[in-house]
Specification:
The complex is a heterodimer. Chain A is of the alpha+beta class. Chain A has helices at residues 16-23, 29-32, 44-56, 94-104, 111-131, 163-181, 246-253, 300-308, 324-328, 338-350, 367-373, 375-393, 448-468, 482-501, 507-521, 528-548, 560-584, 608-611; strands spanning 36-40, 59-63, 81-82, 156-157, 184-187, 190-198, 201-209, 215-219, 222-225, 258-259, 264-270, 293-297, 321-322, 362-365, 402-411, 414-415, 428-430, 613-618, 627-632. By secondary structure, chain B is α+β, with helices and mostly antiparallel strands. In chain B, the strands form two sheets. Chain B has a five-stranded mixed beta sheet. Classes of the chains: A alpha+beta, B alpha+beta. The structure holds flavin-adenine dinucleotide and FE2/S2 (inorganic) cluster.
């Protein structure tokens, strides 16, 4: 139980972080040079942390699977980043950003962490502007803001539709500066395979060089994991192809607890799946729901004709259309929250009313908006999105309604961390999407970028230093230690085992099958029976995987099939833990919707008496049931309410 | 549709490469180009052959990882998109498609269609940043920046670092890439402080790494998936010249 101490500083909410910083332990400059820090990942969280550690004078080693740190998945974020600047004078404040984030997360996040996030959000914008990040500006030369879901204020800073790219390039430039200076050493195309623990502390990692296949040992006084989210367990998601959960899974198996693994965000407006060869899904900004109306045919015969392609949507008369969101949620209509919109689309499609050749799509129709406002207005608002849609789907959304469908987008769950972002393994920290910390059961738009940079620029430089302060007497860790030997053996054993199967089915094929189980049973709508089924089916699939997977080639070469196989082997286990977590949480909250627990109107029904906790899962051994630990959530400063969308 | 693919196969940098023909059948017009390669690879794996290696990640035109030369053009026949954004409806049933890696001396082939573009990272390390540390910076709105300048900086900053400009250039020049970064900082007050050293150091690094000279053919702009303008090259040239003049004077 003690392991789960969140270590929240004493004092009033708005002084906790100040107090922490005032009392933390520091390391003097000459000692910093003797202390090594490993950072795994060069996304927003990893790059910002590594650059900041380097600036402080620590000796930093950074690892990433990409050929360049600039290609981390953060590059793909579109919409923007939140901050409580209140430049728009519309009543925003640190408290309000904190409150919106806690509420948006359906009261399943830690107050103190979220408050700190809101508090440092303003520093992030200052920092990025100073780096030369070209945020959008108004004619007066000051920064522009846009609105995002879950907030009544305009607090989202953006750089066209490429905010993630610009923020990452900012962090990458800071990182490049430190690499040039020699304080940071970059190891590209390296995949972490194991964590090394010496005397109970994280002391290093085992990585595979993705070009030569060489297995390397790297040691440090502390290790930071910033390896992103695990949405790709579903096979199809909006995540980049190489995004994975393996590093998080490896440290879980070494003793780090996994927090709320089942909390997944499914985004309602993505371009639908178009065939079984499909490799990933593309997000369409949720801003489209401001002007688009969502519908499916009211009658099955129409839906069937559309699926066969014998009629066009424009041929369906107004009174034969079902604007199901407007029908079910007259107050919010098409602007219901992400989770509600996603579930409603799935419900219609499952009932046979879906459109497109697969029947797994709904229409997002701009006809009324175009008639009302004129095509030029819609073009000015969404032109680039319409173009992107047309490139992929080959249909003109000004003339034919867009087809959309929900897709896996983000994982709120992740490695459990305390207030210092330290895991249950001393010396191992987790940041960015890889940790479970700030978004509770649902993340608000534009808050992931904020969290990644908050963790990296403004939290870890303090908390890791606090940890290292009592490590100054520890000399450089020797990679010849038996613990490194053992970890390397484990990594090699996994690789050898994969090659030894010599089966007949490809890794992708297994991944696709796992994804289907996850999507059907651990996706948008979950229930006890299906979750139990999911656990069984994943276990069966895992057995089959290890009997019949085919991994070509060998270890000593560029081998993307091997890379995928290592990741999918981990997903086969992580998927099961996600199902377990969803099964024990007998309530609905945020993105976690249990069909058994809903109000009469079909809204999520939380159970604060029984489930007001973070589920922190503990590994107990191969094929053994994991142990559930509970970190109770205490709301000292805000009142817990039922979220109301009506 | 059925297609013939002529794909460059090369086991590693030290060995010679060659074209190998592959047939793919029943490819949906809605599949993306990389999904078509996925289908081929899945088949090769089943047949016990070595799948074709290529770089890719985001598959939506932003990470800059994908890098194929398709029918003699970087990122294929369409303007303003990356390889991963191209769909098979762009091709005809029965067509032969030639697929090669970037071919430029500073980007050696790693395997098949994968090349090593770390030279770009090295150029950035030579000065593609503002030398400030985390913390202690002024309020974000302390220095107003004209919208026009911010927009120009953003145009330049949208470079994805894919290397198509180098691959398109007969001299393998990296001018468009380097100038985009120089230009982004040159128009922003935050970047102006170090503008002189930046342009000199980045250009020197570019030359040192073996990138060729710019002879103004503008193939780079034509093939850039983000349609970055050669006007940034002109700006960089001005920056470079004036930085020379200033450093001569201060000598
Ligand atoms: C399409 C899309 C749009 C989005 N838009 C927004 C938005 O507008 N606003 C917002 O706030 N959020 C948005 N998000 C979410 C946000 O982009 C991510 O949550 C965030 O960028 C994650 O950053 P990160 O640093 O934690 O991880 P990542 O950027 O995913 O980086 C992970 C890093 O870890 C490395 N890595 C992974 N595994 C290993 C391993 N085993 N060994 C070594 N290295 C490894 C990778 O190479 C990479 O460098 C969006 C997400 C998507 C998919
Ligand atoms: S795969 Fe990212 S740009 Fe093509």
């Amino acid at each position: 139980m003690d392991k789960l101490a969140a270590k929240i500083p004493q004092g009033p909410l708005d002084l906790k972080w100040t107090n922490y910083k005032a009392h933390q332990n520091l390391v003097n400059p000459s000692n910093k040079r003797k202390l090594d820090i490993i950072v795994v990942g060069t996304g927003l969280a990893g790059a910002s942390a590594a650059a900041s550690f380097g600036e402080l004078g620590f000796n930093v080693k950074v690892f990433g699977i990409h050929d360049s740190p600039r290609r981390a998945h953060s590059i793909a974020a579109q919409g923007g980043i939140n901050a409580a600047k209140n430049y728009t004078n519309d009543g925003d404040s640190i408290y309000r950003l904190f409150y919106d984030t806690i509420k948006g997360g359906d009261y399943r996040a830690r107050e103190a962490n979220v408050y700190r996030l809101a508090e440092v959000s303003n520093n992030i914008i200052d920092q990025c502007v100073a780096q030369g990040v070209p945020f959008a500006r108004e004619y007066g030369g000051l920064l522009d803001n846009r609105s995002f879901g879950g907030a009544q204020v305009s607090r989202t800073f953006y750089a066209r539709g490429q905010t993630g790219q610009q923020l990452l390039l900012g962090a990458y430039s800071a990182l490049s500066k430190e690499i040039a200076k020699g304080s940071v050493k970059m190891f590209t195309r390296r995949e972490m395979l194991e964590l090394v623990i010496v005397d109970g502390r994280a002391r290093g990692i085992i990585v595979r060089d993705l070009i030569s296949g060489k297995i390397e040992r790297h040691s440090a006084h502390a290790v930071v994991l910033a390896t992103g989210g695990y949405g790709n367990v579903f096979f199809l998601s909006t995540n980049a192809m190489a995004s994975n959960g393996s590093a998080a899974w490896k440290v879980y198996k070494k003793g780090a607890f996994f927090g709320n693994p089942s909390f997944t965000q499914i985004h309602p407006t993505c371009i639908p799946v178009h065939g079984d060869y499909q490799s990933k899904l593309t997000l369409m900004s949720e801003s489209l729901r401001n002007d688009g109306r969502i519908w499916v045919p009211k009658f099955k015969e129409d839906a069937e004709k559309i699926q066969k392609g014998t009629i066009k949507p424009t041929a369906i008369a107004e009174d034969r259309r079902d604007y199901y969101l407007e029908r079910r949620y007259p107050a919010f209509g098409n602007l219901v929250p992400r989770d509600v919109a996603s579930r409603a689309a799935k419900e219609r499609c499952d009932a046979g009313f879906g459109v497109g050749s697969t029947g797994l799509a709904v229409y997002l129709d701009f006809k009324d908006a175009i008639n009302r406002l004129g095509k030029h207005v819609i073009e000015a608002r969404y032109g680039n999105l319409f173009q992107m849609y047309e490139k992929i789907v080959d249909e003109n959304p000004y003339e034919t309604p867009m087809m959309i469908y929900p897709a896996v987008h983000y994982t709120m769950g992740g490695i459990w961390v305390d207030y210092e972002l330290q895991t249950t393994i001393p010396g191992l920290f987790a940041a960015g999407e890889a940790n479970f910390s700030d978004h509770g059961a649902n993340r608000l738009g534009a808050s992931a970028l904020m969290q990644g940079l908050s963790d990296g620029y403004f939290v870890l430089p303090y908390t890791v230093q606090n940890y290292l302060a009592d490590q100054i007497g520890v000399s450089r860790i020797d990679t010849d230690l038996p613990e490194f030997e053992k970890a390397e053996k484990e990594a090699r054993a996994t690789i050898d085992k994969l090659f030894s199967v010599k089966g007949t089915e490809t890794v992708d094929s297994f991944h696709r099958r796992l994804g289907l189980i996850m999507w059907d049973f651990v996706g948008m709508a979950r229930n006890g029976e299906n979750l139990t089924k999911a656990i069984e089916q994943i276990q069966e699939l895992r057995v089959e995987f290890w009997k019949n997977v085919k991994v070509p080639g060998n270890n000593e070469m560029v081998n993307p099939e091997l890379e995928k196989a290592i990741r999918v082997a981990d997903y086969m286990e992580l998927g099961e833990l996600m199902a377990r977590d969803a099964l024990i949480r007998e309530e609905s909250c945020g993105g976690h919707f249990r069909e058994e627990y809903q109000t009469e109107e079909g809204e999520a029904l939380r159970d604060d008496k029984k489930f007001n906790f973070v589920a922190a899962w503990e590994y107990t051994g191969e094929n053994k049931e994991p142990k559930l630990n509970k970190e109770p959530l205490e709301f000292e400063f805000i009142e817990v309410k039922q979220r109301n969308y009506k | 549709m059925d297609l013939t693919l002529k794909i460059w196969r090369q086991p590693d940098a030290s060995q010679k490469g060659r074209f190998v023909d592959y047939q793919v059948q029943n490819i949906s017009a809605d599949a993306s180009f990389l999904e078509m390669l996925d289908i081929l690879n899945e088949r090769l794996v089943i047949e016990g052959e070595d799948p074709v290696a290529f770089d890719h990640d985001c598959r939506e035109g932003i990470c800059g990882a994908c890098s194929l030369y398709i029918n003699g053009r970087p990122h294929g026949p369409d303007k303003g998109i990356t390889t991963c954004q191209m769909h098979m409806r762009r091709f005809k049933d029965g067509e032969t498609i030639v697929i090669e890696p970037w071919r430029a001396r500073p980007f050696p082939v790693i395997k098949d269609l994968m090349v090593d573009r770390t030279a770009f990272d090295e150029i950035i390390r030579a000065g593609g940043y503002v030398s400030i540390n985390t913390g202690g910076v002024p309020d974000a709105n302390a220095i107003p920046i004209p919208k026009r300048d911010a927009d120009t900086a953003m145009d330049a900053a949208s470079c994805i670092g894919c290397g198509a400009c180098v691959a398109a250039c007969k001299n393998a020049s990296a001018m468009l890439f380097v100038s985009a970064k120089v230009s982004q900082f040159a128009v922003l007050p935050q970047g102006k402080v170090e503008a002189r050293e930046r342009v000199q150091n980045m250009v020197a690094k570019m030359d040192e790494l073996g990138f060729g000279n710019c002879t103004n053919t503008y193939a780079c702009e034509a093939e850039c998936p983000k349609e970055i303008s050669v006007s940034h090259i002109a700006r960089m040239n001005r920056e470079f010249l004036s930085s020379k003049v200033v450093s001569e004077k201060t000598k």
